[in-house]
């Protein structure tokens, strides 16, 4: 099954960010392999310029993680400032793109922003300057822009768990679409599911304030809410309170696990596909809603597919880097 256009674009942007980091760390990386990647798709050159422009706007390394868990086998990439362009015309374009990235940031913050992009199968643990920290799930993009008056983090299409240091008069805010989550000294997880348009917020410790066009609500430890990205509250059996064991299960992705306790096959496959290049497809709508239980390694799609197939009594096949469960 081919990825959607938006997913394909996100993969291209992630690959471009990795190339920009690689070039910064090692100018000799601009070799035949890079040329082949650029020639593979006309979008690649523009994506690389955007990624490099983002680096130029930063005063600190793009990847400031003090620890990283990765299932891709890649080592962390250090970032310097070295621009690779394929000619004079691209150099001019790169300069204009760098300006485009810098101007919006300066309007909101006196400090440059930092951008973190995780690839499929990659989890980052990031320590921020204010003592806060973020666990970033696979296939997620986060922009951090700290100023004297507030600390702003923008999350797009992904999941992260935030442990915010409390600073009176300088709120820590996570923005997803029209939804703003403000820390009141806490730890919380935010999942922006672009495919459904739902923002899922869980408070694992302390309390937060959630604001949207639908209104304001304060959530405390163990509480959960799901909203549309445009702010409309979504009625759901998941809205309400969750136990400590449930919180541990929901946040098990940080340890590279997928813990299922009644989630459907379709929901489990969505989580696994975020973390792996080897994708899983549900071959029949009749089994998509079947509930599953158990703990699985999130970087082992084949093992999960075999177990799910055996549990549901359906065949499992693999062709062209896609695993199909059911006919």
What does this structure look like?
With 327 residues, this protein is α+β, with helices and mostly antiparallel strands. The chain folds into 3 domains: 1-64 and 74-108, no CATH class; 128-253, Sandwich (Jelly Rolls); 256-325, Phage tail protein beta-alpha-beta fold, CATH 3.55.50.30. It is built from 8 helices and 20 strands. The strands form 4 sheets. Strands 1-3-4-7-10-11-14-15 form an 8-stranded antiparallel β-sheet, with no helix packed on it. Strands 2-5-6-8-9-12-13 form a 7-stranded mixed β-sheet, with no helix packed on it. Strands 17-20-19 form a 3-stranded mixed β-sheet.
What is the tally of helical segments? Answer: 8
Count of individual domains? 3
Per CATH, the architecture of the largest domain is: Sandwich
Count the strands?
Answer: 20
User: Which CATH C-level class of the largest domain is it?
Assistant: Mainly Beta
Strand residue percentage: 25-35%
Pfam families: FecR
Keywords: Membrane, Transmembrane, Transmembrane helix
Transmembrane segments: 82-103
Organism: Qipengyuania qiaonensis
Provide a short characterization of the protein structure.
This protein has 327 residues and is α+β, with helices and mostly antiparallel strands.
Features:
327 residues, alpha+beta, 3 domains, seven-stranded mixed β-sheet
């Amino acid at each position: 099954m081919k990825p959607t256009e938006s997913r394909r674009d996100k993969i291209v942007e992630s690959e471009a960010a990795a190339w920009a980091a690689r070039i910064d760390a090692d100018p000799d990386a601009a070799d035949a392999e890079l040329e082949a990647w650029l020639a593979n798709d006309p979008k690649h050159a523009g994506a690389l310029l955007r990624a490099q422009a983002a680096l130029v706007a930063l005063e600190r390394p793009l990847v400031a993680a003090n620890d990283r868990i990765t299932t891709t086998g890649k080592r962390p990439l250090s970032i310097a400032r070295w621009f690779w362009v394929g000619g004079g015309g691209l150099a001019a374009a790169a300069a204009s793109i760098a300006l485009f990235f810098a101007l919006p940031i300066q309007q909101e913050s006196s400090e440059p922003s930092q951008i973190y992009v995780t690839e499929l199968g990659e989890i980052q643990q990031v320590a921020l300057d204010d003592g806060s920290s973020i666990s970033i799930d696979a296939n997620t993009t986060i922009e951090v822009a700290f100023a004297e008056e507030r600390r702003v983090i923008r999350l797009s299409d992904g999941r992260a768990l935030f442990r915010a240091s409390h600073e009176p008069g300088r709120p820590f805010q996570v923005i997803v679409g029209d939804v703003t989550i403000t820390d009141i000294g806490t730890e919380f997880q935010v999942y922006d599911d672009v495919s459904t348009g739902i923002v899922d917020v869980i408070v694992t410790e302390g309390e937060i304030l959630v604001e949207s066009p639908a209104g304001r609500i304060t959530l405390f430890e163990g509480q959960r809410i799901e909203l549309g990205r445009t702010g409309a509250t979504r009625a759901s059996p998941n809205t309400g309170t969750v136990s400590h064991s449930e919180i541990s299960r929901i946040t098990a992705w940080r340890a590279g696990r997928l813990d299922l306790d009644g989630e459907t096959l379709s929901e489990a496959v969505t989580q696994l596909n975020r973390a792996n290049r080897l994708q899983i497809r549900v071959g029949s709508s009749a089994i998509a809603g079947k509930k599953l239980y158990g703990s699985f390694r999130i970087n082992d799609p084949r093992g999960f597919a075999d177990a799910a197939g055996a549990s549901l009594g359906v065949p499992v096949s693999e062709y062209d880097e896609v695993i199909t469960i059911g006919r």
